[in-house]
Specification:
alpha+beta, 6-stranded antiparallel beta barrel, Efflux RND transporter periplasmic adaptor subunit, Elongation Factor Tu (Ef-tu), domain 3, efflux transmembrane transporter activity, OB fold (Dihydrolipoamide Acetyltransferase, E2P), Helix Hairpins, MdtA-like_BSH, single chain, 4-stranded antiparallel beta sheet, 14 strands
Length: about 270
């Protein structure tokens, strides 16, 4: 009786073990198939092309800062407003700097008179060459002070370095700012380029002057681009490198800075 019971237990354990082995083998085969399938997809041209991602950027996009401190009295343009090169973007209360400028001009005139008088006295042997040289040095210092004060006066106004649009306002009218504070961000919305993130496997295939088709995401629009700059280094973490491309034959109204897409080798 006992031997029959023990024999039955052994049969049950053997059957369970065989089922477990089949299950493990099935899972292992499924994992192997999945890996093989992913490797096959990764090696396909379509998969590789989809990895060449890019984003449309402005060739000129900059945050403008104030060269001097003071109170903002005018920010004439709001976000999204267009401007031309040389247009006023910000104005500070400039009365203090204008007063300093006028004071330095007055000091310069006084030093000029002193220098001219020293030259006259030298001709009559009333003073020596040293006194004249010192008077000339003081005149040069006064002239430099005028230049410095004039730079401060010019810094009261920030003018557009190029034509474009306002992207962000980083300050408000009547706000007091310090020298170096960011005031406004502007972009050139007409002269655009494409920044590409390219897998390192393409490094010797996609070079300068290479032409590609750039497909805008969620849009039927395709644009022709050509590589103009290629990074000399590859990021070891992402195994990608950056490249920049020029856009050919496009409608500016259909492209916006920040749009993303996929580049395909032509």
């Amino acid at each position: 009786m006992h031997s029959l019971l023990i024999h039955s237990i052994f049969l049950l354990l053997a059957t369970s073990t065989s089922h477990i082995g089949v299950t493990f083998n099935t899972i292992s085969a499924a994992q192997h198939f999945t890996k093989q399938q992913s490797f096959a997809n990764a090696s396909s041209p379509i998969f590789q092309q989809s990895l060449i991602r890019g984003i449309i950027k402005s060739q000129h996009q900059v945050v403008l800062s104030s060269q001097i401190g003071g109170q903002i009295i005018q920010l004439p343009l709001g976000i999204g407003k267009a401007f031309k090169q040389g247009d006023l973007l910000m104005r500070l209360d400039c009365r203090h700097y204008q007063a300093e400028y006028q004071a330095t001009k007055a000091k310069y005139r006084a030093k000029l008179k002193h220098y001219q008088n020293s030259q006259s006295l030298l001709q009559h042997n009333a003073i020596g060459q040293l006194e004249v040289a010192l008077a000339k040095a003081e005149l040069d210092i006064a002239k430099t002070s005028i230049t410095k004060a004039n730079i401060s006066v010019e810094g009261c106004n920030i003018k557009a370095p190029f034509s474009g649009k306002v992207a962000r306002l980083l300050a408000q009218p009547y706000q007091s700012i310090k020298a170096g504070d960011a005031i406004i961000e502007v972009i050139d919305h007409k002269h655009l380029s494409v920044e590409l993130i390219i897998p390192d496997s393409f490094y010797f295939k996609v070079k300068s002057t290479t032409h590609l088709i750039f497909q805008i995401d969620d849009s039927p629009h395709q644009i022709l681009i050509s590589i103009t700059q290629v990074s000399p280094t590859i990021d070891p973490v992402s195994q990608t490198y950056r490249a920049f491309a020029q856009i050919h034959q496009h409608n500016n109204k259909q492209l916006v800075v920040g749009m993303s897409g996929t580049a395909l080798v032509k």
